[in-house]
Amino acid sequence: MSTLNYFLITTFASCYFITVLIVFEIANLLKLELLKINHKFKMNKQIDQRAADNIRALAVAMVEKAKSGHPGGPMGGGDFMHILYSEFFNYDPTDMEWAFRDRFFMDAGHLSTLMYAQYYLLGNYAKDDVANFRQWGSITPGHPEVDVKRGIENTSGPLGQGHTMGVGAAIAAKFLEARFGDWMNHKIYGFISDGGIQEEISQGAGRIAGHLGLSNFIMFFDSNDIQLSTPTDEVTTEDTAMKYEAWGWNVVTIDGHNHDEIRKALTDANNQTEKPTLIIGKTIMGKGCVTADGSMFEGHCELHGQPIGATGADYAKTLANLGANTESPFDIFDDVQEFYKNLVAEKTAKAAEKKAEIATWRIANEALATKLDFFLSGELPELDFASVEHKAGLATRAASSGILGYLAENVENMIVSSADLSNSDKTDGFLKKTHALKKGDFTGAFLQAGVAELTMACIANGIALHGGIIPVVATFFVFSDYMKPAIRLSGIQELGVKYVWTHDAFRVGEDGPTHQPVEQEAQIRLLEKLKNHSGNPSFLALRPADSAETSVAWKMALENKNTPTGLILSRQGIKDIEPQGSSRYEEALAAEKGGYLVKEVENPDVVLIANGSEVATLFAAAEILESQNNLKVNIASVISEGVFRLQSKAYQNSVIPANTPLFGLTAGLPVNLEGLVGANGKVFGLEHFGYSAPASVLDDKFGFTGEKVSNQVLEYLKTV
Ligand SMILES: Cc1ncc(C[n+]2csc(CCOP(=O)(O)OP(=O)(O)O)c2C)c(N)n1
């Protein structure tokens, strides 16, 4: 062998040897990495299970200690919650009110422990908080009450409303995204149970979410086939998946305890661009419950709504089965604690990245960024309500239409909605200057809610909760009955929703008693007497007497950001109140005190009191009383008794004196004015359902003409 050959062979051999060595090393490294990944995966699997069990154990312990609550449902929902919050949900733990956080809207308020347990793992609650579930002064009330700083986005309890508010928030998010860009693509998650699915409102929420293609809305249905009194198959045979598919949803059914299936469903839902997603998670009521002898005790109706110790399950054995310390059941498991500590750090870092991205956007889009900040601040632009001119003798709904047209041009962050009555409730004044929201196009500002008053009101609550947008909803006053549960939640949650209610009295006329509100004003005004948790009247109800007062009422409504406002408006034209000076609008601004004198003389013989269109009737009566009976008459227009009662006693007395005869006129129940008129006064109102006939005929038949009212006053004055 030549030296050259020898050299070539040895070189080749050593190269070969080195290559084999390298390949071998790489393979080893790869194997090691795979092993590590596998180990981590197994660890994760283990920790996921432990975290979900920890949530279950906490929920059980909270209910047991409180001696009341609903343990079974949270035990089923724990797996979804943990996977959602650990792998998908984006928020900034150091800045809970960050406007671009994902939102979680709980429908099944009775499952509050599920949220408290989850947010306890995330550090939003202390051990004492969860241990004091449902107790006086605790921050863990029986049903969740909005508390954004701790992650509670909405108050819930009345089933069906929570997820509908989520739909509202999803609409708000799309509205803002259409104006400021895709970078704000946060998600709205909903959590619903059998009860919410059965509530009628889910029809409206499901229809609208599908119709508008709310791809940013992802709802988990905790489908455990058990409800409070019975298994669900005793009350329903519907195919829920088909129902939601028919509404245009993306629907997937999974094992709600299988973490990989939850993960995949959430991944797919997050990639949706066209449709909202319903993840039907088949879960087990009371997952993990065992009896005293250690056998499983799951899926029972009795686990729904009482401490598990009061059922066939054994409390201590169940805690042990879930891996909890039976002596200190409110502990977070060590490994779960460690996992969540890291998770919170990761979430914070991820949010910081997103915030940096947003900061770059802000630099490149200065004007838009300023506008966005303005929207989110909740401030109003400079508005000049006096500049809106009204023709003489308008119905207050028509005056409202003029204001809405002005607002359409001057307030860019309003969504006005009507339950298929925009041309009657006159929100078309707004609609004509914008266009309706549509699937794929949220550049408009009008929501055609369809005939679904409760859904619409609830959506408005959700829009308000999301922030950045002022929601306005409209329908006939008589149908405020259909909205009442949502109005109540607007009040409890202190939301600045604006309700526009037109066709405010029997003067609806020919439509008859079904359409003629009588007791509605009394019902709504009860909320003015009911204080919210901030100690303020929970609602502001305004029934303006003419066009100028309607402008003032809108001003009051917009400036009232922390409680809902209702504008109660007439169908029929109303004679405007004559200005006593130069500007009727300036004088009508006194309505901001709740009530004021629209006609004032010294030492009146009688003070006539009304609101809305009855004020004009009082003017007609006063004319007769003065010209034919030589009486001196004052007239007070009280747009809101609630606001009036907040004024000084001296002011109240200057409008409604204690020692002068008082006569009230209302097209609603007399109780509307009895508080103002007092025991010595008289109120003439309606004490029966209406009838179908032209409005002027009803005025005459029911005694609401100037002449008939003047006779009533004279009769009354004989008695004082
Ligand atoms: C509007 C409304 N009606 C009734 C109730 C009372 N309620 C609370 S939970 C519940 C049963 C709901 O069953 P489901 O949603 O299946 O909850 P789970 O049994 O899974 O906990 C009922 C009727 C309510 N909270 N809201």
Polypeptide structure, described:
The chain has a six-stranded parallel sheet with strand order 7-6-8-9-11-10, sandwiched between helices. It has a five-stranded parallel sheet with strand order 1-2-3-5-4, sandwiched between helices. 46% of the residues lie in helices and 11% in strands. The protein starts with a helix and ends with a helix. By secondary structure, the protein is an alpha/beta fold. The chain is built from 25 helices and 16 strands. The protein folds into three domains: 48-349, Rossmann fold (3-Layer(aba) Sandwich); 385-568, Thiamin diphosphate (ThDP)-binding fold, Pyr/PP domains (Rossmann fold); 592-719, Rossmann fold (3-Layer(aba) Sandwich). The structure holds thiamine diphosphate (TPP). Thiamine diphosphate is lined by residues 70, 72-73, 108, 110, 157-159, 193-195, 199, 222, 224, 226-228, 304. Its cofactor is Ca(2+); thiamine diphosphate; Mg(2+); Co(2+).
Present the secondary structure layout:
Layout lengths: L2 H64 L5 H17 L14 E4 L5 H10 L5 H5 L29 H20 L7 E6 H5 L2 H11 L5 E7 L16 H7 L3 E6 L3 H13 L5 E6 L32 H7 L12 H31 L1 H12 L18 H15 L3 E5 L9 H4 L14 E3 L4 H14 L3 E7 L3 H14 L4 E5 L17 H10 L10 E3 L4 H13 L5 E4 L15 H5 L6 E5 L6 E5 L3 H16 L3 E6 L2 H4 L4 H7 L6 E4 L5 H7 L4 E3 L10 H8 L3 H14 L1
Parallel strand pairs: 1-2, 2-3, 3-5, 4-5, 6-7, 6-8, 8-9, 9-11, 10-11, 13-14, 13-15, 15-16
Antiparallel strand pairs: 12-14
The structure holds thiamine diphosphate.
Cofactor: Ca(2+); thiamine diphosphate; Mg(2+); Co(2+)
Keywords: Calcium, Magnesium, Membrane, Metal-binding, Thiamine pyrophosphate, Transferase, Transmembrane, Transmembrane helix
Organism: Algibacter lectus
